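Memo to structure team: turn this sequence into structure tokens by end of day. - J.P.
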Amino acid sequence: MSKTPLTKKGAQSLKDELDDLRNVKRPKITEAIADARAHGDLKENAEYHAAREEQGLVEARVRDIEAKLSNAQVVDVSNLDANGKVVFGCTVELENIATQEHICYTIVGEDEADIKNNLISYASPFAKALIGKEEGDIAEVRAPAGVSEYEITEVRYE
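Reply from structure team:
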């Protein structure tokens, strides 16, 4: 199985979430289950069943994060010297040739992607059109609405 790229920031975010699940949520759920058991009959105890369901969800998320971290290849973008090329982890400033609109994206791992925060997956068609290009190059992005052209105005390794 090949490693999945993950930015240093993304890996830290997953580690923080894992720490919270293990050290904050697990103890609260254990306490909630104990309190619900103290109320008596477990067959008709909604609090008990809700706490057990939440416990299952938390444990599934813990296993999911552990698997992602064990299969991750963490990339520290600040140590990259890609000579101005667009690569995994870099931040790219773009200008839409047709509309003159300026946008900025950071190319990240699939688990980190969040378009609302301008984080796009390296596997997305948009990122694939950008990777390997340099400042001043034109990237053609194919989308269902047609082809859009973007000029790469700046590449940063933050």
